[in-house]
Design brief:
The complex is a heterotrimer.
Chain A (H helix, E strand, L loop, with lengths): L5 H10 L4 H19 L2 E4 L1 H16 L11 E5 L26 H8 L3 E6 L33 H8 L5 E6 L5 H7 L2 E4 L19 E6 L2 H11 L17 H7 L6 E5 L9 H16 L3 E5 L7 H16 L20 H12 L2 H14 L5 H22 L4 E5 L15 H5 L6 H6 L2 E10 L4 E9 L4 H19 L14
Parallel strand pairs in A: 2-3, 2-4, 7-8, 7-9
Antiparallel strand pairs in A: 1-3, 4-6, 5-6, 5-10, 9-11, 10-11
Chain B lengths: L4 H7 E12 L36 E2 H13 L3 E2 L6 E4 L9 E4 L6 E12 L2 E16 L3 E5 L11 E5 L6 E7 L9 H19 L11 E11 L9 E6 L2 H20 L7 E5 L6 E6 L9 E2 L10 H9 L5 H12 L3 H9 L3 H9 L4 H19 L10 H12 L5 H12 L5 H8 L7 H14 L1 H8 L6 H11 L6 H13 L2
Parallel strand pairs in B: 12-13
Antiparallel strand pairs in B: 1-10, 1-11, 3-6, 4-5, 4-15, 6-7, 7-10, 8-9, 11-12, 13-14
Helix pairs in contact in B: 3-4, 8-9, 8-10, 10-11, 13-15, 13-16, 15-16
Chain C lengths: L5 H10 L6 H18 L2 H4 L17 E2 L9 H4 L6 E2 L2 E5 L7
Antiparallel strand pairs in C: 2-3
Helix pairs in contact in C: 1-2
The chains are: A alpha/beta, B alpha+beta, C alpha+beta.
């Protein structure tokens, strides 16, 4: 049962062939069996999940009209605040904190009757591309446990690939939904900025952060997308407009006459050969389905990474200032005679990991007087240039595409001492965040040289998220026909503990 | 040796800069829906947003924006068609996010002015104070320092934080530098703050209670030799919380600076704290190593871009400017300049106006507020606004005196009772058993008794030494529990002794 | 090229309220030489005529009405406090000026 898609599970629930409690128990059982190897979860809320499932079952038997995904379980990235449930954002500084409120995403999930199994592992405060920066140990890629599952949302993607959950929530600041999806052979969508409320999402970089759906199929992602999206008065940057019809788009599956723009700058040098191979194959399939493939250029994308590593650290240096040992979380050094200042200093030294400190210091520098214009100011201008590149390109095409990442999953520990090499992983995903538009990654096959999943990225203009689903669904169907079975069926069996 | 103020101003010219923080009187906080009511139990008016819990986001209170635009308009400012919030980053435990949402280089209102008038040596003198900017920000929480002998921060063992005040909307009004006030600098500063307060009160945007901290003034003062071009080093005196203190603090700083400069020492650029008891300032944090606030546009909020229709609607809603309003009152009441100035100075104009609106005669209303009630406020060291007596109460008391039901003396007792919290005038009168003794027979009996008890005094009066009458009148008043009309007692007493 | 000395890093750490060992200061100072070289590229393209983007969406004037909504209970507000006393957050002595 756990190998079904979320929409198949939903159908079985509606048909009365299973119950939410049964479904939830099956996943809890799976988690108990494999998560000691995968380490996708930081906290499993068995009791809460079963209660929620029972409540949905009761409503269903009472004949109440339920949302499409009611009763289907989900894994929640630990950056998302859930009332009463330990929420750490992967950081020691928040260990043991139980929020007194729900994020809007959690409220929406609950209103949709989606059962929250627990909180998934992540790079501390979503800073990283491998989940190695979690204060609670790395997550392992179900395709090869010695490899990273991507990051920052490696726990959510690994949970999907390990069949520990059929749905998950991720957040994407520079690729944290899409890159983990790519390296685990799953689907991940970063909606248009402002499409899903950020209220209750522990901020890394406010102007870039966006929560979105993670799933094993494009349709499942679409169903989850509609469940969590929509205007939220508690988030001033939330878009006050109808949610794009992404489920309908995922079901339509027709790309005839659509123009698909291949980004010249996000291909070629630096991209692994198997990644390029699978990307080209996908383009052929889309062309076969009637789409027109065109080349587009985005000359300023090469500056995106540099701008990102100024903007995100700058905003995080301010966003993370609240973790100061005064009102919640860790407190270190509170001995007789200690000052508030020394307790703050010591707590932040112990409570933050290396990468977080590195970015806070970098951001503090980039915002400091005398350097602001050269660094933060210039980075904001690059942002304008990148948006202009997208706008020009979208005059020539309906969606833009690229490989999601330059390589397949690397080994745990391989890049942890080389921040720049690590940062390069996000080179193709970052431009989307800079412009605030939508991006999707879906599996394009396995790289022949290492047998690991490759991601295909689709980018759509702001508020045109349905276009990604349209193209994604067509490509997914074509690939499925070619493979004869979902890609994940080729993943190795996970051994129990 | 301490310099006299005259010596200071004979040599130096003061340059002022005033920053006034005003708490707006919105129902809810600047960036969240928590109540702004003053004096609630600790941490009962907090939420994820104003406690800066992880994940919480601010949302802007529309009324606060409107109030700020109104303030800008009333201060003759330009309203920016595009303005943004910015984060001011610094760590302090009373500020939950460890940054304050404020405005930096894109404030909502800029370039205004306020005209103020003071009583100069040769009559009224007018000064124009230029306003640099008016911007929005949020207040901090309150800390209680425990364990030190003084209850102050120094020597405290730990602190207790209450975040009810955190996030209350603040508007900061910053002047350009104010040169050319010469010896009147302290009075001009006081008149400016008073004028601002009156404007804000007339706009209805703030409670403007300096004692409760809803209006706070930071005063920058520097001195330069008369005729010099370059500005001297300034000190910034924080949180001066009464009109009188504004004047005292500036005067005190002028003298302190002059003493340093005369000794050839330099003035340190620093924050200083005004001490109410001594009228002096105490050194706070040195600003020599400037704090780097790392301002940047607040990414959680979108720009504020008021269109001209909105601004014009707000402009139409502005009340009469206080200075014009005052002129109108002065004419209607036929009050001489000096009396008018006295009322403004004692901060009773609004109270007198309200009392008159309740039917009292302007002269009577003025004399009660300026006299007895001001005196009590002074004795109690309280702002007259904060006394438990209202314009309605005073109007009622004036009416009772007019009707002959109270004497001036009894009226004073009633006022005292109302202020002491004994209730409304009628309640005080009935509880204290206050009533005028109008019965001449009863008074005569008392007079005869007193004369018999103090024959020597009575004889002095008979001999024509009239000032001695006071003692006997006092004794009669005492004998009648102060309920007699003193004028009538005097009349009867003199009639009795002088056999007229 | 851009670089940060050990003392620069120490000053930034002070601003950011993070205690750092001597070793950390030196390591970060070395790393920053590389990182700053990489990020300084933004200065190559951003001309004076380019408007900076601080928000990805062109939103304006997003306000909420001035209406009081329920606060947290005091208990919930203080639920995460490392220390509390008399319904207040208890914190170590605050050095600095009197507020």
């Amino acid at each position: 049962m756990i190998h079904l898609t979320a929409s198949q599970m939903a159908s079985k629930l509606i048909a009365g062939e299973t119950t939410s409690v049964e479904l939830t128990q099956a996943h809890l059982h799976r988690i108990a069996e494999v998560d000691s190897n995968v380490h996708a979860f930081l906290f499993v809320d068995s009791k809460g999940a079963l209660e929620q499932a029972a409540a949905v079952d009761a409503k269903r038997s009472a004949g109440e009209k339920l949302a499409p995904l009611a009763g289907v379980p989900l894994a929640l990235k630990d950056v998302m605040v859930q009332k009463g449930i330990p929420t750490t954002a992967g950081s020691k500084i928040l260990e043991g904190w139980r929020p007194p409120y729900d994020s809007t995403v959690v409220t929406n999930l609950k209103n949709n009757g989606i059962v929250i199994l627990g909180k998934t592992n992540m790079d501390e405060f979503a800073m990283g591309s491998s989940t190695e920066n979690s204060a609670f140990g790395p997550t392992h890629n179900p395709w090869d446990l010695t490899r990273i599952p991507g990051g920052s949302g490696g726990g959510s993607s690994a949970a999907l690939a390990a069949f520990e959950a059929p749905l998950a929530i991720g957040t994407d600041t520079g690729g944290s939904i899409r890159q983990p999806a790519a390296v685990t052979g799953t689907v991940g969508v970063k909606p248009t900025y402002g499409g899903v409320s950020r209220f209750g999402l522990i901020a890394f970089s406010s102007s870039l952060d966006q929560a979105g759906p993670c799933a094993r199929t494009v349709l499942d992602a679409a169903l989850l997308h509609e469940a969590i999206a929509g205007h939220d008065p508690k988030d001033s940057t939330s878009i006050n407009a109808p949610v794009p019809q992404v489920v309908a788009a995922a079901k339509t599956g027709d790309v005839k006459g659509m123009k698909i723009g291949v980004v010249k700058e996000l291909n070629g040098e630096g991209y692994q050969s198997g990644v390029r191979l699978r990307f080209e194959e996908s383009l052929e399939l889309l062309a076969d389905a009637g789409a027109e493939i065109v080349e587009v250029s985005a000359p300023n994308f090469e500056y995106a990474l540099a701008a990102y590593y100024l903007i995100a650290p700058s905003e995080c240096s301010s966003n993370l200032a609240r973790f100061d040992a005064m009102r919640y979380g860790l407190r270190v050094g509170d001995v007789d005679g200690a000052s508030a200042e020394s307790v703050m200093n010591l707590t932040r030294e112990v409570g933050f990991g290396r990468e977080v400190k590195r970015r806070i210091i970098l951001g503090t520098y980039a915002l400091s007087s005398g350097y602001y214009d050269a660094y933060y100011g210039s980075a904001q201008k690059v942002r304008t240039l990148i948006t202009q590149d997208f706008n020009k390109a979208f005059e020539k095409c309906d969606v833009m595409v690229s490989p999601t990442c330059p390589t397949t999953a690397f080994k745990i520990g391989e890049k942890s001492n080389d921040p720049i090499a690590m940062y390069l992983n996000d080179i193709a995903t970052i431009p989307v965040n800079m412009a605030g538009i939508g991006g999707m990654s879906l599996p394009a096959g396995l790289a022949p040289e290492d047998g690991l999943p490759v991601g295909f990225q689709i980018m759509a203009p702001a508020m045109q998220d349905q276009r990604m689903y349209l193209v994604g669904a067509v490509l997914e169907a074509a690939l499925l026909t070619r493979w004869g079975a979902p890609l994940l069926s080729q993943a190795p069996e996970l051994v129990g503990k | 040796m301490a310099l006299s103020y005259d010596e200071v101003i004979s040599k130096y010219e003061p340059v002022l800069g005033l920053e006034v923080h005003v708490e707006l009187n919105t129902q809810s906080k600047m960036f969240c829906g928590c109540s702004t009511i003053f004096g609630g139990e600790p941490n009962t008016q907090t939420c994820p947003v104003c406690l800066a819990l992880p994940g919480a986001l601010p949302t802007v209170n529309e009324k606060a924006i409107e109030s700020t635009i109104k303030i800008g308009l009333a201060l003759n400012c330009s309203i920016a068609p595009f303005s943004r919030f910015a984060r001011k980053n610094y760590f302090y435990p009373d500020m939950p996010k460890n940054f304050q949402i404020s405005q930096y280089d894109e404030p909502i209102c800029t370039n205004g002015y306020v005209d103020v008038e003071i009583e100069g040596d040769e009559g009224p003198k007018s000064f124009r104070i230029d306003i640099e900017r008016v911007h929005m920000e949020e207040d901090t929480g309150k800390s209680l320092h425990v364990g030190g002998a003084t209850g102050r921060i120094h020597g405290a063992e730990y602190s207790l934080l209450d975040y009810n005040r955190a996030g209350i909307p603040l508007v900061e009004i910053v002047t350009k530098i104010v040169p050319g006030t010469g010896k009147y600098a302290p009075e001009v500063a006081k008149a400016y703050v008073a004028e601002l307060r009156d404007i804000l009160r007339s706009l209805g945007v703030s409670d403007v209670k300096m004692e409760q901290g809803s209006l706070r003034c930071d005063a920058n003062v520097s001195l330069r030799l008369i005729g010099a071009e370059t500005l001297g080093t300034r000190s910034e005196t924080k949180n001066v919380n009464s009109l009188r203190s504004v004047e005292r603090a500036i005067r005190g700083e002028m003298v302190r600076h002059a003493e340093l400069l005369n000794k050839g020492e330099r003035v340190v650029q620093e924050t200083r704290h005004f001490q109410e008891e001594s009228g002096l300032t105490r050194s706070g944090r040195s600003k020599e190593q400037a704090e780097d606030y790392r301002y940047f546009p607040e990414p959680d909020l979108v720009p504020v871009a008021p269109d001209s229709v909105w601004i014009e609607t707000l402009r139409q809603s502005l009340p009469e400017r206080p200075s014009i309003h005052r002129k109108r009152l002065q004419e209607a009441w036929s009050v001489p300049d000096k009396e008018m100035a006295a009322m403004i100075n004692a901060d009773v104009l609004n109270l007198v106006e309200a009392t008159v609106n309740e039917g009292a005669d302007p002269t009577k209303a003025r004399s009660w507020w300026l006299g007895e009630i001001s005196r009590i406020a002074n004795d109690k060291d309280m702002a007259i606004f904060d006394l438990a007596i209202t314009a309605t109460d005073v109007a009622e008391i004036v009416a009772l005196v007019n009707a002959g039901e109270l004497t001036d003396k009894l009226a004073r007792q009633v006022i005292e009772g109302v202020i002491a919290g004994e209730g409304k005038p009628a309640e005080v009168i009935s509880a204290r058993g206050i009533k005028v003794v109008n019965d001449d027979g009863a008074l005569m009996a008392a007079i005869e008794k007193v004369c018999a008890e103090q024959p020597e005094t009575a004889q002095k009066i008979r001999n024509g030494h009239l000032p001695a009458a006071g003692a006997l009148i006092g004794a009669v008043m005492k004998a009648t529990n102060g309920q007699a009309d003193a004028a009538r007692v005097r009349e009867l007493l003199l009639g009795h002794l002088l056999q007229r | 090229m851009s670089s940060l000395s050990r003392d620069d890093v120490a000053n930034l750490a002070r601003l950011a309220r993070i205690e750092m060992s001597e070793e950390e200061l030196i390591n970060l100072s070395n790393e920053f030489t590389v990182i700053l070289d990489a990020v300084a590229r933004v200065q190559e393209v951003a001309g004076a005529e380019v408007e900076p983007t601080s928000h990805p969406l062109p939103l304006r004037n997003v306000f909420r009405p001035d209406v009081v909504v329920a606060s947290l209970t005091t208990e919930a507000a203080l639920s995460g406090a490392p220390a509390q006393e008399d319904s207040r957050f208890r914190v170590p002595q605050i050095l600095g000026e009197e507020a």
